[in-house]
Design goal:
The complex is a heterotrimer.
Chain A: E1 5-13, E2 16-24, E3 29-33, H1 40-48, E4 55-60, E5 64-67, E6 72-73, E7 81-84, H2 96-107, H3 113-126, H4 142-154, E8 160-164, H5 172-184, E9 191-195, H6 199-203, E10 207-212, E11 215-220, H7 222-227, H8 232-238
Parallel strand pairs in A: 3-9, 3-10, 7-8, 8-9
Antiparallel strand pairs in A: 1-2, 1-4, 4-5, 5-6, 10-11
Helix pairs in contact in A: 2-3, 2-4, 3-4
Chain B: E1 19-26, H1 30-43, E2 47-54, H2 56-64, E3 71-74, E4 92-104, E5 123-127, H3 132-144, E6 150-154, H4 157-165, E7 171-175, H5 176-180, E8 185-188, E9 195-202, H6 207-216, H7 219-227, E10 231-232
Parallel strand pairs in B: 1-2, 1-3, 5-6, 5-7
Antiparallel strand pairs in B: 3-9, 4-7, 4-8, 4-9, 4-10
Chain C: H1 2-5, H2 9-32, H3 38-42, H4 45-78, H5 84-96, H6 99-110, H7 115-120, H8 128-152, H9 157-164, H10 169-198, H11 201-207, H12 217-226, H13 231-256
Helix pairs in contact in C: 4-8, 4-10, 5-8, 6-11, 8-10, 8-11, 9-10, 10-13, 12-13
The chains are: A alpha/beta, B alpha/beta, C mainly alpha.
Chain lengths: 242, 250, 260
C-alpha cells in the first residue's frame, strides 16, 4: 500500500481552472502560498471533495478518493479529512461545544455521546476556550470563532487536515498556543496542508508550494524559496528577516 | 355628444350611444333574464340591459347601500320588504316558482323522497337561511317534520344545483325551474311544496325604466316564464303579491 | 448611514397613502361593530362551532403545508432538474387562480365522483379533511416561496463543511440545512396559517359549508351576511377574526422571526 498523498488535480470552475500536482509523505506538513485568486482555497476544496476533479486523481494512504477517468469519487463524508475554512463557518444554531463535537458523531461511530462531549471539551480546553463551551458562535469574537473551528476539525483526528489561513483572525498572543493545539491533537501520520500568508507557518513546513493562476509556480523548502530570484512576491514573503 | 344626465341608472350611455338600464335579478332567474335581455334589446336597439345576478338578499343589500338599480326582480316578494327606499310603484308579481328536491341522475343514495334525507350518511345541499330558497327550505322541513342528516349550506340556488349535478351531494333543494333546466339531475316532486313569487320592483321613474317594467309585465314575458316552467302569477295586476310569502316564518 | 437611507419625502407620502388604504377599511369595520352585543355574538353556537373548525383546519393545513412545502422549497432552491420551471409554476398556480377554481379542480380530483371518491367510498366533500386539504393547497405556495427565498440566501458553505466533518446527506439536511432555514420556515408557516385561516372560495366550493365540520369562520361570515337577521353577527365575527389574526401575527413576528 502506498502511503502519503499523491494528487494530480485538474478542476474547472467556470473561467477558473486548477492544475496542480502535489505529492507528500505521511506525517508531513505542506504550506501553500500564493496571491489572492491563485487557487489555494479551491485546491483545499478539491482535496476535501467539495469540488470534484475533472481530471487526474487523488490517492491518500492507499484508497483512491477521486479519479474521474474511472468514475470514482468519494464524497467528503467518506474521506478521512477535516477542513478549517477561512471564515470559521461555525454552525450558528449550535453551541460551541456542539460545534466541536459535530464531527465526532460521524467520524468515529463507536464513541458514546458522553465520550464525544468529553473529547470535544478537551479540544476546547487545548484551544483555551473551555469557558465559552455553552455560548452560541455569534457571541464570540472573530478570533475565538476561528479557534473553535480549528478545535472542531482537529478533534476528529483525520489523516488529512486542511487548514485555510487558520491563524489569520487570531491575535499574535494566541497564535502560538493554537499551533500547539494543532500539534497536540495531531495523530501520528497526519498530513497537514496549510494555506498561509505568514512566514511563520511556512517556515516550519516540510514543503512549501507556491500557486499562481491555478498552477504551481515554485516548490521547495521555505529557505529555498526565500533565496530564489525569479518570483519577487515569494522571495519577499519567505526571505529570512534581517 | 352625450347628454349629461343625473346620476341614475338610466343616466349612463354606452360608447355606442345606447342607453344602459341596470337590472338586478335573482340568480334563480338567470336563464329567464337572458331571454328577457335578448327579446327587449332586439325590439329596442337603443337600449342596453345590464344584468346583475345574485341572491335576492344580496341584491337588496346592494340597493340599500346605494347601488343604482333601475329594476329589481326578486325571487320572492317577501324580500322586497327589506328595501329601505320604497319602490316607485307597488311591486308586481310576475310568476311563481316552487321548491323541489333533486338528486343526481343516477341517484347514488337511492333517495325516494324527503323522508330519506335523515338517513345516516346522506348529504344534502340546500340554500342557507336568509336566501329565498333557503327560507323556503326551512319552512318546508319544519312544516313537514323532516330531518336532514348532514347538509351543506350554499349561498344561492345555482351552487346547490351544481353540487347535485356533479354528484358531490346526494340530494339538493332547488326550484322546479332549476330542476327542469338540466337533465343531469332527477326531480323528486314534493307534496305541499312552498311557493315563491317572482316579483318586480321599479326603483326609478324614468321613461325608459317604466317602458321596461311594462314589458316585464307583458303577456310576452309571461309566456317566456311559462316556457321555462314557472307557474303563473295568481294576480298579474299591480297589487298584492300572489301566494303566501314563505319567508315570513309561517 | 440610517439618515442617508431614509426614503425621500415623496416616497414617504405615497407610503402613507398606502397605509391609509389598509387602515380605513379596518376602522370602518370597527365603526360598524355591534359593540353592545359583541360578546353575545361571539358566544353564538354557530360562531363557537365555526371557531373550533377554523382553529383545527388552519393549524392542520399549516402542518400539511410545512411537511410538503419545505421539501419542495429545498428541491426548487438547491437543485437543477428538468422541468423545474414547470414545477414552480404549478406550485404557484393557487396564488393566481381564483380560489373557487382551485375548489373546482380539487372536486375533479378528490370529489365523490372520482377514482379517489370511489376508493374511499365518500370522497372529501363535506368532510373536515376536505376543508384542510383545500386550505393547505391555497396556503402552501406562500410557505414554499418564503422558504425558497431564505434558502437562496443561505451560505452553502455550512452544508459543505458538515460533509467534510463526515455528516451524510440526511444528517446534514436534518442537523444543518433545516435549522438554518428555520427563520424562513417559521415566517412561511405564519403566512400559510394566515392564508389558511382566511380561506373561503376553495373551501366552500370543494368541501362545502357544513356546520361543525367544514364551516369555518369566513364561511360563517359569508353565510351570516346573507340574512338580514344575522348581519350583526357577520360583522362581529369579522372583528373576532381581525383580533385573533392581528394578535397572532404581532406576537409571533417579534418572538420567532429575528430582525435582520
Amino acid at each position: 500500500m502506498t502511503t502519503g498523498l499523491t494528487a494530480d488535480m485538474t478542476a474547472n470552475l467556470g473561467p477558473f481552472s486548477l492544475e496542480v500536482k502535489l505529492t507528500t509523505g505521511v506525517g508531513s506538513t505542506v504550506a501553500v502560498v500564493g496571491p489572492n485568486g491563485s487557487g489555494k482555497t479551491t485546491m483545499l476544496h478539491v482535496l476535501a471533495g467539495v469540488v470534484p476533479l475533472t481530471g487526474g486523481e487523488i490517492v491518500v494512504n492507499g484508497p483512491v478518493w477521486d479519479r474521474p477517468a474511472d468514475g470514482i469519487r468519494l464524497m467528503p463524508e467518506h474521506r478521512d479529512v477535516a477542513l478549517v475554512p477561512q471564515n470559521a463557518l461555525l454552525f450558528p444554531h449550535l453551541a460551541v461545544i456542539d460545534n466541536v463535537a459535530f464531527g465526532l458523531r460521524y467520524r468515529d461511530r463507536g464513541l458514546s455521546r458522553r465520550t464525544q462531549r468529553k473529547l470535544a471539551r478537551e479540544a476546547l480546553e487545548a484551544a483555551g476556550l473551555e469557558h465559552l463551551a455553552d455560548r452560541k458562535p455569534h457571541q464570540l469574537s472573530g478570533g475565538q470563532q476561528q479557534r473553535v473551528a480549528i478545535a472542531r476539525a482537529v478533534v476528529t483526528r483525520p489523516s488529512l487536515l486542511l487548514l485555510d489561513e487558520p491563524l489569520s483572525n487570531v491575535d499574535a498572543a494566541n497564535r502560538h498556543q493554537l499551533r500547539e493545539t494543532i500539534d497536540e491533537l495531531r495523530p501520528p501520520g497526519q498530513i497537514q496542508i496549510v494555506v498561509t500568508h505568514g512566514r511563520l507557518h511556512a517556515s516550519t513546513a516540510d514543503q512549501v508550494v507556491a500557486l499562481d493562476h491555478g498552477r504551481v509556480v515554485a516548490t521547495g523548502s521555505a529557505a529555498e524559496l526565500g533565496r530564489q530570484r525569479k518570483i519577487g512576491w515569494l522571495r519577499d514573503m519567505l526571505a529570512p528577516a534581517d | 355628444m352625450s347628454i349629461v344626465m343625473p346620476a341614475t341608472a338610466v343616466g349612463c350611455s354606452t360608447g355606442d350611444g345606447r342607453r344602459t338600464i341596470d337590472v338586478y335579478a335573482a340568480s334563480s332567474l338567470a336563464d329567464m333574464m337572458e331571454l328577457v335581455e335578448e327579446g327587449y334589446e332586439r325590439d329596442n336597439p337603443e337600449v342596453d340591459l345590464r344584468m346583475n345576478l345574485a341572491g335576492t338578499n344580496a341584491l337588496v343589500r346592494q340597493v340599500n347601500s346605494g347601488a343604482d338599480a333601475a329594476i329589481l326582480v326578486a325571487a320572492d316578494a317577501s324580500f322586497l320588504e327589506d328595501l329601505v327606499e320604497e319602490p316607485i310603484v307597488t311591486p308586481v308579481a310576475l310568476a311563481t316558482n316552487e321548491l323541489t328536491l333533486t338528486v343526481p341522475a343516477d341517484n347514488p343514495a337511492g333517495i325516494a323522497g324527503p323522508e330519506d334525507l335523515g338517513r345516516e350518511g346522506v348529504l344534502t345541499a340546500r340554500c342557507a337561511t336568509g336566501v329565498p330558497c333557503g327560507d323556503a327550505t326551512d319552512v318546508y322541513l319544519a312544516a313537514n317534520g323532516f330531518a336532514v342528516a348532514r347538509s351543506t349550506e350554499e349561498a344561492n340556488v345555482r351552487s346547490v344545483l351544481a353540487k347535485v349535478s356533479t354528484g358531490e351531494v346526494d340530494a339538493g333543494f332547488v326550484y322546479r325551474t332549476d330542476a327542469a333546466a338540466t337533465d343531469t339531475v332527477l326531480e323528486i316532486p314534493l307534496a305541499d311544496a312552498p311557493q315563491v313569487t317572482v316579483t318586480m320592483a321599479q326603483l326609478d321613474s324614468s321613461e325608459a325604466t317604466t317602458e321596461l317594467a311594462r314589458y316585464l309585465g307583458s303577456d310576452e314575458v309571461a309566456d317566456l316564464f311559462a316556457r321555462l316552467g314557472f307557474g303563473p302569477a295568481e294576480s298579474r295586476q299591480p297589487g298584492i303579491p300572489a301566494g303566501d310569502p314563505p319567508g315570513d316564518g309561517g | 448611514m440610517t439618515a442617508l437611507r431614509r426614503p425621500p419625502t415623496v416616497v414617504l407620502v405615497v407610503a402613507g397613502l398606502g397605509v391609509l388604504l389598509f387602515l380605513i377599511p379596518v376602522l370602518a369595520l370597527l365603526g360598524d361593530a355591534p359593540w353592545s352585543t359583541l360578546f353575545t355574538q361571539f358566544a353564538a353556537p354557530e360562531t363557537v362551532a365555526a371557531g373550533r373548525v377554523s382553529v383545527i383546519v388552519s393549524l392542520a393545513a399549516t402542518a400539511l403545508a410545512v411537511v410538503l412545502g419545505v421539501p419542495m422549497a429545498f428541491a426548487l432552491a438547491n437543485m437543477d432538474f428538468w422541468g423545474k420551471p414547470i414545477v414552480r409554476t404549478i406550485i404557484t398556480v393557487p396564488l393566481v387562480l381564483p380560489p373557487v377554481v382551485t375548489g373546482v379542480a380539487l372536486t375533479s380530483a378528490f370529489g365523490r365522483r372520482t377514482l379517489f371518491g370511489e376508493l374511499t367510498g365518500i370522497g372529501l366533500t363535506s368532510t373536515m379533511a376536505g376543508a384542510i386539504l383545500a386550505a393547505a393547497v391555497v396556503a402552501t405556495p406562500f410557505l414554499v416561496l418564503t422558504v425558497e427565498g431564505t434558502l437562496r440566501s443561505t451560505d452553502p458553505g455550512y452544508e459543505q463543511l458538515a460533509s467534510t466533518l463526515g455528516a451524510p446527506p440526511l444528517a446534514r439536511w436534518w442537523h444543518i440545512s433545516l435549522p438554518l432555514a428555520r427563520p424562513g420556515v417559521l415566517a412561511g408557516a405564519i403566512l400559510a396559517w394566515a392564508r389558511a385561516l382566511g380561506e373561503f372560495g376553495a373551501t366552500i366550493t370543494f368541501a362545502g359549508n357544513t356546520e361543525g365540520s367544514t364551516q369555518t369562520l369566513p364561511l360563517e361570515i359569508a353565510l351570516a351576511l346573507e340574512n338580514p337577521d344575522t348581519q350583526d353577527r357577520a360583522v362581529a365575527v369579522s372583528i373576532l377574526m381581525l383580533i385573533v389574526s392581528l394578535t397572532v401575527l404581532i406576537t409571533l413576528r417579534d418572538r420567532w422571526i429575528p430582525r435582520r
